[in-house]
Write a structure and sequence with these properties.
By secondary structure, the chain is of the alpha/beta class. Strands 2-1-3-4-5 form a 5-stranded parallel beta sheet. Strand 3, helix 4 and strand 4 form a beta-alpha-beta unit. The longest helix has 9 residues. The two termini are about 20 Å apart. The relative contact order is 0.22.
Length: about 110
């Protein structure tokens, strides 16, 4: 799966998701973009978008055939806080289907 991590997530997560082709929004040069513009770029290039922004899926329209969004629900974006959900995140990525939203609580 081609996965992109939102800029609010720690870059260190990339190495924990080594089973997939993973990059980050900043690495793509898309940091600071508004959600709508960012989603337009991501849809069609990536299979999965991982974010902490739970409101994104309600505020933006996703093409049903394009992308799976995984929302991590956590108290903060610290790597140590998110580390316990890496196994569940890997499983969610592996089972991701276009047009779906998966929520994972830390």
């Amino acid at each position: 799966m081609k996965v992109i991590l939102d800029e609010c997530l720690p870059r260190r997560l990339v190495r924990d998701l080594h089973a997939h082709a993973v990059t980050t929004v900043p690495r793509q040069g898309w940091a600071g973009m508004k959600d709508a513009a960012l989603l337009r770029l991501i849809q069609g290039e990536f299979d999965v978008f991982v974010t902490l922004d739970a409101n994104l899926v309600y505020q933006q329209s996703l093409r049903p055939d394009s992308l799976c969004v995984i929302v991590l629900r956590a108290q903060n974006s610290c790597y140590e806080t998110l580390l316990p959900v890496v196994d569940r995140l890997l499983k969610a990525i592996s089972s991701a289907r276009p047009g779906t939203v998966i929520e994972i609580s830390a």
